[in-house]
């Protein structure tokens, strides 16, 4: 019985290190597969919105297509039809219209 007790005690001590290593590995996996790509994507979106200029054709988050007529601090004046202009927040610009348009061939 004493040999069995000694072996069980040795296994219990090693389990602490293996659980710590497993936790570190899980945090590393989450960082490289979830957190890092998300922050990278957010940087790309911020760079895209800063590069917007007058005359660009864009799509809003609500699906409205238009052409940028004026850019202020955080407000964009978007022309959605002839002489129809709306003011929207800069953060609601989703993509350029050239990226999201597709051609339908019948």
Automatic annotation (TrEMBL):
Transmembrane intervals: 15-34
Source taxon at top rank: Bacteria
Keyword Membrane attached: yes
Localisation: Cell membrane
Recorded topology in the membrane: Single-pass membrane protein
Keywords annotated in UniProt: Cell membrane, Membrane, Protein transport, Translocation, Transmembrane, Transmembrane helix, Transport
A Gene Ontology term for the protein's cellular component: plasma membrane
Gene Ontology process terms (BP): protein transport
Entry-linked PANTHER family: SEC TRANSLOCON ACCESSORY COMPLEX SUBUNIT YAJC
NCBIfam families named among the record's database cross-references: yajC
Family note: Belongs to the YajC family.
The protein's name: Sec translocon accessory complex subunit YajC
